[in-house]
Design brief:
Blueprint (H helix, E strand, L loop, with lengths): L1 H9 L7 H25 L1 H4 L13 H30 L12 H4 L2 H15 L4 H39 L4 H26 L6 H21 L10 H21 L14 H21 L19 H20 L16 H27 L5
């Protein structure tokens, strides 16, 4: 193909497999996150020289530093999102091995590193006004990504539960995992009360923790009732509650450090790292669990691809926009501190809203067949 011929002039490694391509793009997205952190926190000497960022100049050094950092975050996010959305557009409705456009997904990994780097470089010479609009778009797109993340995690839990139920020898493993999930959940809630609700005036934190406990009791009872679907049970509920408890602690830890209800003693570093890995991991899991049988029409001819590359790049593009919100703490105006990821009251409420969404989606998956009187 002509595309491959052009790529040969740039890179000897012309094409990789679909399986390897997933990890290639995962590595690229991970690198974009690392690059975003480095330039946001340590790139001021370079950023202040750009004419396009003159709007950040201020008599307050801290305000100027924060403005420059957030400008860099939005530019790297935009370049990475544009890279993936362009791929998605080129691969729309690409489902079969026979489709020649699949080469856009697998060809020229070496050249794509260069293209991505050029997009990032060029984005720093774009007018700052454009990125104010992009920041608002990224916020809306991040909401879509969180909805997708909730659905993917619940679907993965159901599939894991069903796989272990189908294997008789996994019965005790399933029981053990269920106990571990509930133990982890209650431990997180106890720690929440200890470190983030030390006094009765911490009404918001007490409500978040107590409501999480009540939601956990509710979905557990529902998973044992006659209303639930066949492949739900203590393990699925335990896993969902464990994830919800992690979101709870992450939300509590996102609160400003000067809050009177933050006692200190819980290091936030591991939570930041795990939250970042979960965001990326959800994207990777989606590519592994979204089977082509769900997207191909019945009776279709042709050998199906391992996964839909257009959907793959669409989700990765949304993930790039979501990372922009993580590194700006969901605020385009406020300040960020060194090593801050997803801090502040906006971040905390987004995480709690995400937790509630997970419980709502999980509850609906258990009762939808009864409410709608049909099988799924």
């Amino acid at each position: 193909m002509a595309l491959e011929a052009i790529c040969c002039l740039i890179s000897q490694d012309v094409k990789i497999t679909f399986s390897a391509a997933k990890w290639f793009y995962f590595a690229l997205l991970s690198l974009s996150g690392l690059l975003t952190w480095l330039i946001r926190d340590y790139g001021d000497p370079l950023l202040e020289r750009l004419d396009e960022l003159e709007g950040c100049k201020s008599d307050d050094p801290n305000a100027e530093e924060n403005c420059l950092g957030k400008a860099a975050v939005l530019r790297i996010s935009f370049a990475t999102a544009l890279f993936h959305f362009t791929h998605a557009a080129l691969l729309v409705n690409c489902k079969y091995v026979e489709d020649p456009r699949k080469v856009f997904h697998t060809a020229c990994p070496g050249a794509k590193w260069v293209i991505w780097a050029v997009l990032i470089f060029a984005s720093f010479f774009m007018p700052d006004g454009f990125f104010r609009v992009y920041g608002e778009l990224a916020r809306a797109a991040s909401g879509l990504f969180l909805v997708f993340q909730a659905v993917v995690i619940i679907d993965f839990v159901y599939e894991l539960n069903e796989a272990m139920l189908d294997r008789g020898e996994c019965k005790w493993t399933l029981i053990l995992l269920s106990l571990l999930a509930y133990t982890f959940s209650f431990t997180m809630m106890i720690l929440g009360y200890m470190f983030f609700a030390p006094r009765g005036t911490c009404s918001t934190n007490i409500f978040w923790i107590t409501f999480t406990l009540l939601l956990g009791i509710f979905v557990t009872a529902l998973s044992l009732s006659k209303w639930k679907i066949e492949n739900s049970g203590l393990f699925t509920s335990g896993a969902v509650i464990a994830y919800g408890s992690f979101l709870l602690i992450s939300a509590l830890n996102s609160q400003p450090s000067d809050s009177e209800c933050v006692e200190g003693g819980m290091a936030g570093g591991w939570i930041k790292v795990v939250a970042f890995l979960l965001a990326l991991g959800a994207v990777v899991v989606s590519t592994l669990t979204s089977g082509v049988s769900e997207v191909l029409p019945t009776g279709s001819s042709g050998e199906p691809l391992p996964y839909r590359p257009d959907f793959f790049h669409l989700i990765f593009g949304l993930a790039a926009m979501y990372l922009a919100m993580l590194f700006t703490n969901w605020s385009l105006e406020g300040s960020t501190n060194e090593l801050d990821i997803d801090k502040g009251w906006r971040s905390a409420w987004v995480k709690i809203a995400s937790q509630w969404l997970v419980f709502v989606v999980y509850t609906w998956t258990m009762v939808a067949h009864k409410v709608l009187d049909r099988e799924f």
